[in-house]
Here is the input.
Amino acid sequence: MPLTKRNTHGSSKGAIWTTALLASSMLTTVTVHAQTAPSGAVALEEVVVTAQKRSENLQDVPISIQALGTQTLEERHVSGLNDYVKFLPSVSIQTTSPGFSSVFMRGVVSGDNANHSGPLPTVGTYLDEQPITTIQGALDVHVYDIARVEALSGPQGTLYGASSMAGTVRIITNKPSTAGFSAGYDVEANTVSKGDAGYVVEGFVNQPISDTVAVRLVGWAEHDGGYIDNVPQSRFFPTSQVTRDNASQVKKDYNDVDTYGARAALRIEAGENWVITPSIMGQQQKVHGLFAFDPSLGDLKVAHYYPEGSNDKWSQAALTVEGQISNFDVVYAGSYLKRTVDSTSDYNDYSFFYDTLTTYGQYYTDNAGDPVDPSQYIQARDGYSKQSHEIRISSPQENRVRFVGGLFYQQQKHNIFQNYKIDGLGTDFSVTGYPHTVWLTKQKRVDEDQAAFGEVAFDITDQLTLTGGVRFFKAQNSLKGFFGFGIDFPFSSGEKQCFGPPIVDGSPCTNLNKSIKENGNSPKVNLTYKIDSDKLVYATYSEGFRPGGINRRGTVPPYTADFLKNYEAGWKTSWLDNRVRWNGAAYIEEWKDFQVGLLGANSLTEVRNAGSARVKGVETDINWAVMRGWTISGAAAYTSAHLTENFCLALVNDQQVTDCPDPEAPKGSVLPITPKFKGNLTSRYEWDWGDYRAHVQAAGVYQTGSWTDLRIIERELIGRQKAYGVLDLTTGLDRDNWSVELFVKNAFDKRASLYRYAECNESICGNQVYQVPNQPRLMGVKFGQKF
Here is the structure.
């Protein structure tokens, strides 16, 4: 029985498209805007990033970075994770519903089932200086009053640690300022094609309290209209001779979402050299219904039998202290994150297919011995907490020899409660203390890591710089508590149901209590050559790591850390007096003994170090200030990710087997999720129209197809995700301090597949496939003011 959250979430020429933009090559996306220099010449604005934990011009940073700034985020109507990932070519996601998304970069993905007892993520997510990645994925932070979103491709194992093996995504907020008062608000009304209406209300205020103290307050409320219909259906369970219908759950557009949140930050200037920034941010996201549909029932239609949805509440308190000791910069960054997700899920497919294919239903009777409806549903609560602390020191950046170094500590806990229920189930079949519960998971997982890191840069000449660094880490993972059936029989593997009294509150007993410790290091070497003030090239070798952990099935050994080796060459260039910027990178990555979570006996997730793969790719972006008011921005990534050896469950599960004549995935198989090609192109034109400033914009995204599973048979059962392209259109007017905008997202209402899955083991439930679509066409109007 899989214990995973499957519930899933100037000119009338206007916008001008040019496919020639992407012909040059393929990279990251940094969208910038044209500005007019004092001389009257047109040039691109400077982009400042903090990827190397200091403020730098993007063009001086020898890293493959994708960045979306405040203006770009607003112009493209980016409000959440799905929106900005769309414009980051090297980033892909596996999503089931809002709040349940896994982020991947550069094709480093094995097709895990995102189980709570599975591997840690391969991509780290940061809110400012603090990590916010939880064990089952990234927080879906509402994007408003955000300075930029940065995506750092490739292993970031020196300055960023655990769960940044394949890359790092950073959400950088706008900070309080003592320079003066500012405020703004935006209101939006929208409607979804074949669905409901929605709205967004957002606002911020920056208020100096004194010459040295300022506060910034931000708030938002959003309602997303539903577009999935839960349609009537009935099922007959042959073993138990029961017919069930879903009449009580039938509803049109039942997957709506309500999101509320706020952020507050204080800036305290303590003397000439120190700034203290405490902040707090919180969000609640209420998700209703399922964000997938059943293609056999028709477009955007599903037939489910029990209530579904989630209530995702989280808050983070953070503190950043920046200052100087002598001429050395010192930074402390700490945070505490608490997240609680209450969810309900329909699990009827598992019951129906097991009853149809086996004698599943005969086991479940009431206290009188009569058969009951064996349909299952899940009531779950995931409680996360996370604390992190980092202190680092860096020498003056103008020195010929300079360094940055520091210490890092992180601890994250996950209290897991998964209650699989069958209404009317008899006491003898229920888990002790949990009436009508056929299966219970009540566990506590703790992941902890410590690190010491440092980088040293040496200017060999004025043009040539050598940088070397290393991150030493220690990691520990523990998993304890109870998981199992209420029926008193041993697992097929011979494990006993329990071996001791409860050590996790609320569990009937204990059948798991293990931990694992690891240590190691991840190095980095970079050589950068500055051709002139506008152009540089670089070569990098870097490694990233992901800690190992404990398998919930006691007879399965722990899985160990996996490492990613990265060989990369890139370029940052500006041309035509900074009217054109062209950046890019080419890389080869070796992924050895990677962690993969698959369903084993009794449909329990087992994690193994199971395979090796090679990823080769090219990334590129180009920005062009064509003329005053007209900019074109494009970005793309080409990714070739394949197994370098056979993937064989026989070799994984039985170390005595040395041959694999019929592998689950043969050498050369493409890794799942990531498309081979993903690109975007945006054309924006602004012009004066009387007393108004008018604009039109077109933004298109295209990606090729992909698989959702590594294994060949499962691919045939689930099917392939097709290629797709979507187009967003915008037009609007600005005057003085206000603006109004009309927009259409997914203008041609193209149906994309963001994920395909079955509710349980594909060999059992493979006939019932669900597809998570992109949002249908969204039309809206937005009005805003800034003061």
